[in-house]
Design goal:
The longest helix has 15 residues. The chain is of the alpha/beta class.
């Protein structure tokens, strides 16, 4: 069975983690918790780790336990001048255009943030869809239900026909358990993925052999 669908994570996957964008988003989450919810600065890291562990994202934990306004939170934490962090990348575009498979963004951020990131990278039209945190509500990666929603958005290919590319190992664990081929993007050891690359531009090096295989 050939691979037909590629699911791409967004932040720290399609652009280098060294850009600093995700670090700034994390900082804004902490400011939001302090200014809007009244958490003391020193307790925020512990609360965030707890919510992230139990719910998959800080956002879903705050939504469930503190009844935040989802749109207010998402707009606040992503309100950053992306031109400080991202730029059009012709090499990235060429790489994506050379991959004939259906390509879908699968992110725990929201669609508006994804749209802005893709615009600044100059690759919006390389993707046929975006599966975001709002589409997946009340689930998110790494919950299996989120992956089933993504598969439905892609037209219900079998997991064995799909590839998941992500910088978070725990997200790749679920994808692999479901039967997807998995690619980790990052510089840390990762034994839960089928392949590891340090830059998204290296994707064809590990993807070409996989796409030529049958299961």
């Amino acid at each position: 069975m050939p691979y037909t669908t590629l699911f791409f994570d967004l932040d720290d996957t399609l652009y280098p983690a060294s850009s600093g964008l995700w670090q700034e988003i994390r900082s804004r989450i902490e400011v939001y918790m302090h200014e809007r919810l009244g958490f003391a600065a020193e307790e925020i890291p512990t609360v965030r780790r707890d919510l992230f562990t139990r719910y998959g994202t800080t956002y879903l934990g705050l939504k469930q336990e503190y009844r935040i306004d989802p749109m207010d939170f998402l707009a606040y934490v992503h309100d950053l001048p992306l031109n400080r962090f991202l730029a059009v990348d012709p090499g990235l575009r060429r790489m994506l255009e050379d991959l004939p498979q259906q390509k879908i963004i699968f992110t725990n951020a929201d669609r508006n943030h994804a749209s802005r990131v893709l615009t600044y990278l100059g690759i919006t039209d390389c993707f046929t869809g975006v599966v975001d945190i709002l589409r997946n509500d009340p689930y998110c990666k790494p919950r299996a239900e989120a992956y089933l929603n993504a598969l439905a958005e892609a037209g219900n290919p079998s997991p064995e026909q799909c590839v998941m590319i992500d910088d978070a190992p725990r997200n790749l664990v679920t994808a692999r358990e479901l039967g997807m081929y998995t690619v980790y993007v990052g510089d840390q050891p990762c034994d839960c993925a089928h392949a590891r690359i340090q830059s998204i531009l290296e994707l064809p090096e590990v993807l070409s052999p996989a796409l030529s295989r049958t299961n």
